[in-house]
UniProtKB/TrEMBL annotation:
This is Nitroreductase family protein. Keywords: Oxidoreductase. Gene3D superfamilies: NADH Oxidase (3.40.109.10). Belongs to the nitroreductase family. PANTHER family: NAD(P)H NITROREDUCTASE YDGI-RELATED, NADH DEHYDROGENASE_NAD(P)H NITROREDUCTASE XCC3605-RELATED. Signal peptide: none annotated. Residues 15-73 form the Nitroreductase domain.
Amino acid sequence: MRDDLTPPGLHPLLAARWSPTVFDPAFEVTPAGTELLVEAARWAPSAGNSQPWAFIVARRGDDTHRRLIRHLAPSAGRWAPSASVLVANLAHRWVEGTDWEFSEFAHYDLGQAVAHMTFQAGALGLSVRQFRAFDQAAVAADFAVPGHWEVTSMSAIGRVPADSGPRPPSALSPAPARVRRPVDDLLWTAADPPG
Ligand SMILES: Cc1cc2nc3c(=O)[nH]c(=O)nc-3n(C[C@H](O)[C@H](O)[C@H](O)COP(=O)(O)O)c2cc1C
C-alpha cells in the first residue's frame, strides 16, 4: 500500500514495504513459504559468488524459536515473538582458523540476501522487521556458531493483523523512523557532496 512518502511509479512491493512492530500471533507461514524465503536469499548476488550468508530459521512454536526468543532484548521481546518466523542472519566474516577476511563484502552481501528475503516475503503478503535488538554472542553460543561466522541481525516475518490500524502508521502521521533523506541528498556530485 502506498503512503504519503512513496512516489508514484515505485514498484508496488517497494512502496508497500514497511517494518511493523505488530504481528498476528495466530498466523502461520507455511513450511513451503518458509522455504521460499530462504530460496530468495539463496539467489542474491554476492562478490565472486562467495555467498557469505547463513540463516537460523525458526517457526513460532518450534524448539529453535523457543531458543531464539530467549536472547531478544526487551524492546524486540515485545513484538518479535509473535511473528510467525524468526530468522537469525549470519555473515561469513573470516576464513576458518585465520584472521583473514573471508570476503570484504560479507556484510554487504548478507544485506542483499536479507533484502531478497524481505521482498519475497512481501510477494507472499508478509511483512518483515529486521532488527539488532538481541544478544548476538548469546545466540552464537546457543547455536554453536563457529568464530569465523558472525550472527549479524535478525528478521521477524509474519502478517500484520487486519485491525492494527493504518499501514504503515506513517500514512497518517509520518514517524521519524520512516522519514527518508531527500533524493538530492543521495546524489553525490563533486560540487555538492552529501553532508
Ligand atoms: C540492520 C537493521 C537493524 C535494525 N535494528 C532494529 C532494532 O534493533 N529494533 C527495531 O525496532 N528496528 C530495527 N530496525 C528497523 C528499522 O528501524 C527500520 O527499517 C527503519 O526505521 C525504516 O523503517 P521502514 O523499514 O518501515 O521503512 C533495523 C533495521 C535494519 C535494516
